[in-house]
Amino acid sequence: MARNTNRRQFIGQSAGIGAAYWVGGGTQVKASRSALESLSAACVGVGGKGRSDSSNVYDQGVSIVGICDVDANTLQQKQREFRDAEPFSDYREMLDKLGEKVDIVTVSTPDHSHAAAASMAMKMGKHVYCQKPLTWSIYEARHLRELSEEKGVVTQMGNQGTAGDGLREAVEVLRADAIGDVTSVHVWTNRPVWPQAVGRPAGEDPIPAHLNWDSWIGPAPMRPYKQGVYHPFKWRGWVDFGTGALGDMACHTTNLPIMALHLFDPIAITAVKNPGLYENETYPSSSLLKFEFPEREGMAACDMYWYDGGELPPEELTSELPEGFKKKISAQRQGGPKTSGMLAVGTNGMLFSADDYGQRYYLLPRDGFSNYEKPEQTLPRIPFNGAPDERQKWEFVKSITGEHKPGTMSNFTYAGRLTETILIGNLALRVGEGDRIEWDAKNLKATNVQDLSVDVNQFVHREYREGWTL
Question: Domain limits of the chain?
Fold first, then answer.
């Protein structure tokens, strides 16, 4: 499709003035206009979650001009859908070659490659949709957040529950003090559902002809290829590539309370239960983390607890849940299937969600809220019917064209802060059980490393492998 300078200047101006920022629960929205013609996208990663990310962007009227995947078999499958898209196995080559043909870049790779790809795209003035967690490291989250604000592009992280009316309503309920001052939040998950607590296998296997192993490793330290160990899905549990159960699910399951209660910039993090990283290679099979937040914006100090691998909140809390869910908890305590949930505990009651995406919530005890009237709507709703993924892609694309004036809710200003909060938890898995890390959020560093068994500041960021940069 032909592109002209006036049109491309127009798109850039439209994006720069159309961004919405959801910090502190409010938005700063500036005027925008509709695009003159359809947008085009280049998709980094089109397997796994990238299959639906690319398809859902296309369904919003966006032309797919480039697709990139390290696996040639995956590329071949996707080319059947996007016959006019040029295929690549290295996103750097794709963005360099397609350049001005691209308005949007989607990033749906393993966690360790998110930041480098998204950063390159934004520096080129592209609008970016990036899967959760936004980044692999804490520093990368800050970098993408600041870069997105500098460039004025439209951005969105793929925690699709943010697009749902249920989550936005629950946020309004918490902000309206329905349950009083929230003093603790408890979030648990049925993850991991991939291998963790295992060491690196010895030896190496021949790299399949269809796999660009160098591009798959990307900015991470090089290691030998082993069949079925890292690629495709099992990378999540490996420290060099994934962010474990916390990184995988917390951008979904903590999204509701973090947004409602402004749970950014914790002052301390403790691994209450911590088997530790296994040989510094994989995350533990289970953990229990405590995040401490001070008083902020008139809200009471609050602790947030994260449970994975079968860990659960105390029975005195789970005994207050709805009867049907209590039976599931009871079964789990006896070795049954693992559950997921979020419970915010306030001075006047509790808010519970059994949905990973925060779409359904209950005020407890139920008889205490039988006559509860919902607060006035303060957050916009997405005027598009569809699955959460589809609604979020609609929000993203229509924010670029200026047709959705509020902009994207999970933009990198918000998502960057959310991701920072979450990934600080993984630092606690590197020290001893019960060790409390005192955290300076402004400067992204622990201030009490002399009291810890490991200097965790070295893990806030890492040096990239040669040829890969932010």
Answer: 5-162+383-416, 164-196+227-367+417-459
pLDDT band at 162 (very low <50, low <70, confident <90, very high): very high
pTM of the model: 0.93
Topology of the domain comprising 5-162+383-416: Rossmann fold (3.40.50)
> What was the pLDDT predicted at 30?
32
Mean pLDDT of the chain: 93
Bridge partners, residue 87, by sequence: 67
Bridge-partner residues for 45, per DSSP? none
β-bridge pairing 349-353 and 362-364? antiparallel
pLDDT top residue among 20 and 101: 101
What is the CATH number that goes with domain 164-196+227-367+417-459?
3.30.360.10
pLDDT at 448: 98
